[in-house]
Amino acid sequence: MKFPNNILLKEVGPRDGLQNEKSFISTEDKVEWINRLSDTGLSYIEITSFVHPKWIPALADAVDVVKKIKRKPGVTYAALVPNEKGLQRALEADIDEVSVFMSASETHNQKNINKTIDETFKVLRPVVQEAKANGKTTRGYVSTVFGCPYEQDVSIEDVIKVSEHLFEMGIDELSLGDTIGVGNPAQVQRILDELLTRFPASQLAMHFHDTRGTALANILASLDMGITKFDAAVAGLGGCPYAPGASGNVATEDLLYMLDEMGIETGVNQDRLLAAAQWIEEKVGRTLPSRNLQVAKAGCQTRA
Amino acid sequence: MKFPNNILLKEVGPRDGLQNEKSFISTEDKVEWINRLSDTGLSYIEITSFVHPKWIPALADAVDVVKKIKRKPGVTYAALVPNEKGLQRALEADIDEVSVFMSASETHNQKNINKTIDETFKVLRPVVQEAKANGKTTRGYVSTVFGCPYEQDVSIEDVIKVSEHLFEMGIDELSLGDTIGVGNPAQVQRILDELLTRFPASQLAMHFHDTRGTALANILASLDMGITKFDAAVAGLGGCPYAPGASGNVATEDLLYMLDEMGIETGVNQDRLLAAAQWIEEKVGRTLPSRNLQVAKAGCQTRA
């Protein structure tokens, strides 16, 4: 195996972590938390979503959040944008980067977005183009790359089709999502083997959920394939809403622990990250699944 | 990366998982649980420890447990043995395999065993030899291979010294332990690069704790190095006693999920393993850290 010297961590906790969260986090708390995240050394934070508040009430305050945070120079603040209406709100709030999203599997796309994949292409194309015309960088998310709760296996052809359409629209980067956390390292190899013949590693990011504990192993397999950008959420927020103890996104501090120990640079400070994790855990009001957060709180045996 | 076709899972839950457990598990429950584990397809179960009950009261019923379980043909039942007195109890109970243990770091060895490393060699040599004379296979554990809570980093020379002594005594297999769960995949590569020039992969097993979430990534790195035997504990038992939410041994069902999905054969049935995990979780009386157990209980979205 070979590993890169540097990794770019993309924090998605304020968006992917909070979007299904039942505990209401106030706008003031979100702003305070994002400001704390900005001080950890993270250079990319996805802070909210401009999906209609009817669908994601937890992030109904998107415009306020973007306007109220303290923008740290060098940090890119991104947000999810589903359509042109959402883009208008995002541009009004002056977000740095616009992320569009869809699924590789038809059924998940329809259940999640209420449109077919082909209809979604038509909705997202003007969003990407208008965002770019307004000087924004753009990111595309593909969900269910590693498996779909409705269609089971997802073919690599479906992943390639959606990825090609998104790049052809003009996105700058593609994030490949293991939405329900079912992926494994051999699958990572197979999928990236195909995608890397079509798109450069520098334009791909991996987005793993740790639902079944495989996220760091999947990241390791991705590192070996040359991927250098990974999404993660502080404290492992974003779990299955039906499972209080279940993990969501890979916890940023768990990923950072592994990278730090491997000597891979990220520019992120673990102590500050853990403090931001503990801060949001208190606001959410339950034990969150991050391994390193629980160990740090308990003061377990360490090597240091 | 390359992966083997078959892996041997060595279940250590009844010993490593329970030895620091505060909830008292009765002899009858231990026996019932081990019988359930025997029916999962596991071919190796470390079921108790013959360390003096003063030190490990949770396993004071070692002889009874070994005598009362239903021995399934094809399953090897192993136990920890610290000295000749423990060996007499183990032989009386007619355990199949005798495991001896010590640390790679001097301070941890002294705190854990109350002897220097050199004194420990003298104690263990007759244990291994007498076990073999009685027709038992023998296993050696080296603790703190990836880091020590007292000495921080542990040199590869110290690991090699202890490993060579144990093999020279006559052990059949060596288990390399990340006792406090601080290891990382790059370190796995470095350590195995050295050890595999001295000992065959077929005689090495890896024993990872998932304290900081890196266990499966470390196992993936080990697979890539040709290791095919891994210790694990059902439900992720064996966590830091000060951290209720912290993980202990890598959960057998988390490891099995990854291996199953990668197409690597183990002969172990995941549904039965999860049932055995849930059974012991109820006895222990708190939520255990296994990702797959929590997800299975909650009925989260799956690909299947």
TrEMBL record, chains A, B:
User: Which residues are in the Pyruvate carboxyltransferase domain?
Assistant: 7-274
Which Gene Ontology molecular-function terms are recorded?
lyase activity
Q: Which domain of life is it from?
A: Bacteria
Q: Which family does it belong to?
A: Belongs to the HMG-CoA lyase family.
Pfam families, A to Z? HMGL-like
Which keywords are on file for this protein? Answer: Lyase, Metal-binding
For this protein, the record's InterPro entries field holds: Aldolase_TIM (IPR013785), HMGL (IPR043594), PYR_CT (IPR000891)
Is Metal-binding given among the entry's keywords? yes
Could you tell me which species this protein originates from?
Alkalihalobacterium chitinilyticum
- Its recorded name reads Hydroxymethylglutaryl-CoA lyase
